[in-house]
Amino acid sequence: MKLRFEYPGIEYSVDSILEFTGEELSDFWSGPFFHFFPDVDRTAYMAMDEGRRRDYLTDYFTAFEEKNIEMLREKAVLYNEYWMKYEDQITAALEDAFEVDLTDLFNDMTCMITFNPVSPRYLESHTFDSFYLSSEKGALGSAIHEIIHFVWFYVWQRTFRDDVTEYETPHLKWIFSEMAVEPVMRDERLGSINPYYLHKACVYPYFYTLLIEGKPVLDTLYEMFSSMRIQEFMQAGYRFCTDHEEEIRKHMEESESA
Question: I need a surface site. Which of 25, 44, 146, 237 has the fewest CB within 10 A?
């Protein structure tokens, strides 16, 4: 299992930002961009069509890159060096959690350093994003989260042979996978080096406040995870989510629109 951080250039960030600042998305998704770049006039930006937005962002980040290119290059070096310190530790923890040998798997992972504070992951290409303002510790924490998804769905697909399109939002299998990151992260080898885990921010915030049958859902899932083999946990956990899908989705929708 290998990971490399790199800065992919302006166009990559522009495409990513456009994906998360559309009119159809709530402030939960679009708000972070305008928060971190307050000199972007949100009202004017949202009044533009996609073509004008693309031109605007390209011009904006061309000027931004000119001022910050050395910092961006240094970030890539720093992130890569910090990852290498913990690569073996992370690999061992994930091999134990998922009962899989990762020696010859995921040796092509790439993390793109971008200007989008919302950092998506792409299962097929083994790539994901990290915000350029992240510290090396934050970048590592985000990386662990996304790599858990890669290994999770590798094992899931090998077990269930189902439709891979259901591994993305808004499907319940995606929702379950996002919750399941936290129980996996409770391994000391992972949680202790992830600042987001230490501050209860390693999964979407609304999962920390979600109670089902009067109990935090993440605690319920951890009890399952820690008492079962991984395939059994996947089956039992997904069945639990299916049984409570309506209240899970209601809590997510209310939280995102708050």
Answer: 44
Low-confidence ranges of the chain (pLDDT < 50): none
In this structure, which long-range contacts are made by residues 64-73, counting pairs with CB atoms below 8 Å and at least 24 apart in sequence? 64/115, 65/10, 68/132, 72/7, 72/113, 72/132, 73/7
Cα–Cα distances (Å) from 201 to 113, 118, 134, 157, 212, in that order, read: 20, 14, 14, 27, 20
For the chain, the residue count is 258
Q: Where are the alpha helices (DSSP H) in the chain?
A: 10-20, 27-36, 42-47, 50-98, 136-160, 172-185, 188-191, 195-198, 205-208, 217-227, 230-243, 245-257
Letter for the amino acid at 113? I
Under a CB-based contact definition with an 8 Å cutoff, are residues 222 and 183 in contact? yes
| Prediction pTM value | 0.96
pLDDT of amino acid 1: 97
Residue 158: what pLDDT?
A: 97
Question: How does pLDDT run across 38-51, given as a tens digit for each residue?
Answer: 999 999 999 999 99
DSSP string, 43-99: HHHHHS-HHHHHHHHHHHHHHHHHHHHHHHHHHHHHHHHHHHHHHHHHHHHHHHHHT
